[in-house]
Amino acid sequence: MGAYILRRLLLIIPTLVGIMLINFALVQFVPGGPVEQAIARIQGGGDVFEGFSGSGNDAGATDVGGNENYIGARGLPPEFIAELEAEFGFDKPPVERFFNMMWNYMRFDFGESYFRSIGVIDLIKEKLPVSITLGLWSTLIAYLVSIPLGIRKAVRDGSRFDTWTSGAIIAAYAIPGFLFAILLLVLFAGGSYYQIFPLRGLTSDNFEELSLLGKIGDYFWHITLPVLASTISAFATLTLLTKNSFLDEIKKHYVMTARAKGLSESRVLYGHVFRNAMLIVIAGFPAVFIGVFFGGSLIIETIFSLDGLGRLGFEAAVARDYPIVFGTLFIFGLIGLLVGILSDLMYVLVDPRIDFERREG
Predict the structure, then answer these.
(1) What is the CATH number of the domain that holds 183?
(2) Are 324 and 111 spatial neighbours (Cβ–Cβ below 8 Å)?
(3) Residue 68 is assigned to a structural domain of this protein
(4) Tens-digit pLDDT profile for residues 221-262
(5) 251-283: per-residue pLDDT in tens?
(6) C-alpha triplet 78, 82, 88: angle, nearest 5°
(7) pTM
(8) Is residue 106 included in any domain, yes or no?
(9) Least crowded by CB within 10 Å, which of 158, 161, 219, 307?
(10) What range defines the domain where residue 345 resides?
(11) Cα 208 to chain center, whole Å?
(12) Backbone angles phi, psi at 63, to 5 degrees
């Protein structure tokens, strides 16, 4: 197993470089870069992308070399544009910029945001509480509900309970998360009916003045609706996966043998079937958590006024804040690759019979 893990760790480097290279190359063809964003802000022209639709009066402005590259730059001294390019690092060729970026990232130096005057790491730390809240609680609730429900559905396969619960979870899966979030706001956050939960934020304004129990209660009071909205569609896949895994195991010969020996149904189910059936479900927990953690819904964060990583990524992409875009891509890509190795280790932990080295051989 050690040699397998070592090979996987060594593969992280070329994989990560490939991910960064593809995205860096694509960015070179995207209009409205950081220099144009800075020019639009300086001149108070609003959205830099208005110039690309032909609505602006500055189309045809020239850059330092006299080319019509920087829309909206007319009237600004060429020396100032050159200073902007040097500040953002665009005075160097793309190949040199890429290798400089990767060298810094390998040393975990992610630089500062172009427009926020704050380090990328500090900015991520600032947004983490929201993403941790949505990711952790959504994953835990999904597992705590879906696994028992999936087992119950497998045991009572074909019954009325199985039929109506299947209809319920498929309907929940079909409801968009943002639509369910709006429904929760209307019903329980002072929309048209009840004002039970707060409308926005992760904590109250007087959070620091509360006691320990008060802070815990305030935290759960605020996260109830956004967590429910982000969890609603997660039940279907996990519940049906659990059910099908149990059904597949229940039909195997060792279960018939255990029943023939006189073991109780609960002993057969939880003593023999559970471990084998839960292999794929439990071992996939790290990947599921990371997927929910980093795939936080931008719309749900916006609806509940939560400033998380989803919102950060969207704003950075729109503003062409490349240190944030590439810094978060590198960090999340690295974590995702490490989680892939962790998932393999979980498989071995749940079922020691699995040997990845022998399978590769």
Answers:
(1) 1.10.3720.10
(2) no
(3) no
(4) 988 888 888 888 777 778 888 888 888 888 888 888 888 888
(5) 888 888 888 888 787 788 777 787 777 777 776
(6) 145
(7) 0.71
(8) no
(9) 158
(10) 121-360
(11) 29
(12) -100, -165
